[in-house]
Amino acid sequence: MSEIDRIMELAKHRTGLLQDAVDGVGALRVVVSSEGGIVTATVDGLGALVDLRITDAITAMNSQTVAALTVATIHQAVQQSNDERERLVSELRVALKQT
Description:
This protein has about 100 residues and is an alpha+beta fold. It has one domain: Ybab, Chain: A, CATH 3.30.1310.10. It contains two helices and three strands. It has a three-stranded antiparallel sheet with strand order 1-2-3. A hairpin with a 5-residue loop joins β1 and β2. α1 packs antiparallel against α2 (about 65-95). The longest helix is centred in the last third of the chain and has 35 residues, at about 65-95. This is DNA-binding protein. GO terms for molecular function: DNA binding.
């Protein structure tokens, strides 16, 4: 195998690793429910809110409580998404160092 062939194979391999990481982030969905399941937030791999569900139980709550519970649940989902994305990036770093 020539030097250029070896370099091309390494580049292809690293490109595959990068694509796997991008695909992993793209497929990531984190679902978090508040205590009692009143609020459920789903965020994607970039931390964007993609779904928010609130049960009828909020009708017995005041608006400040509903707002606080909603924001806290979304925040927790975003944090978990960030943690998972960081794990995927760390795995990519390790894999790239090994090649």
